[in-house]
Amino acid sequence: MIAMDESNISFFKDGCRLDGRKADQLRPLKIEVGVLARADGSCYIEMGGNKVIAAVYGPREVHPRHLQEVTRAIVRYRYNMASFSVEERKRPGPDRRSYELSKVSREALEPVILTSYFPRSVIDVFVEVLQADAGTRTAGINAASVALADAGIPMKSLISSCAAGKVADTIVLDPMKEEDNFGQADLPVAMTPNGDITLLQMDGGLSPAELHEAVEMAMNGCRQIYELQRKSLVDKYSQLESLSQVPEQEAEACD
Ligand code: UDP
User: Fold this and answer.
1) 0.90 cut: is pTM over it?
2) CA 39/CA 173 separation, integer angstroms
3) For a pocket test of ligand 1, which of 103, 127, 136 has the largest count of ligand atoms closer than 8 A to its C-beta?
4) How many domains does the chain have?
5) Which terminus of the chain has fewer CB atoms gathered within 10 Å of its CB, N or C?
C-alpha cells in the first residue's frame, strides 16, 4: 500500500466505484480449467484486470531428496510476477514480496490437501501473474485450487479467496489497483466452502466493527468465487464425459 494522501482521490461517483461497481461487488471473473498440456493440472483466471495462470505437477519424486517427509507429501508453491505484468517493469526473479506471497498462499491451500496419501513426494504449484491489478495473491490461490483439483490431487474441498478493503471510509469488496494502492486498508481472505478461514492478512487499519464487516464481505465474495470454481471444473469434466461418448464410427472418421 502506497503511503499517499488519499484525500484528493475520488473513489466513488454517484454511489459507484471508479470501475462502476457497487461496494459489495466482485470484479468480473473468468476461470478456465486445463489450459496447459504438459502440467498435471492447470487453470487460467481473470479477476478484473488480473490475469493469472496456475500449473500443478505431482505428486512426484522430491528433489533434493533431503526435503522428503516420510509421512506425507510436501507442497511447494511458487508465486511469480512477470516483469511485464505491472505498470513499472518488475525486476525478474524472486524477492521478499514473492517469498511472502508464496508462503501464505501455500499455507492457505495445504490444510485441504490430503498430503498423507502421498508420503515422500512433492506437489509443486507454480503461479504466474501475467497482468496485475491488485489481489494477485487471491487470484493465484483461486487458480491454484482449481489446478490442484484438475490434477486429481485428493482434497477435502476447494479454497476460494478474495480481499476486502477500505476506501474513503467505506468497506469495499475485491479492491482494484487504485483502491489497493491509495485506500486505507486491504484484507485478503481465503476459505473453504464451509467458512473455515485459511488465510487472513491485513494491511492498513480497521476498527473492530470495520474488521468484522470486511471479513464478512470477503467471505461472501469467496462464496461467489467458489460457485464459479466448481462450475468451471464440472463444465470441463462433463465435456470430457460427452466426448468419450462419441459413437465409434464418428471417432474413426477423424483418424
Ligand atoms: N504491484 C506493482 N509492482 C510490484 C508489486 C505490486 O505494481 O512490484 C501492484 C500490482 O498491481 C499488485 C498491487 O500492486 O497487484 C498490490 O500488490 P500487493 O503486494 O498488495 O499484492 P496483491 O494485492 O497483488 O495480492
Assistant:
1) yes
2) 32
3) 136
4) 1
5) C
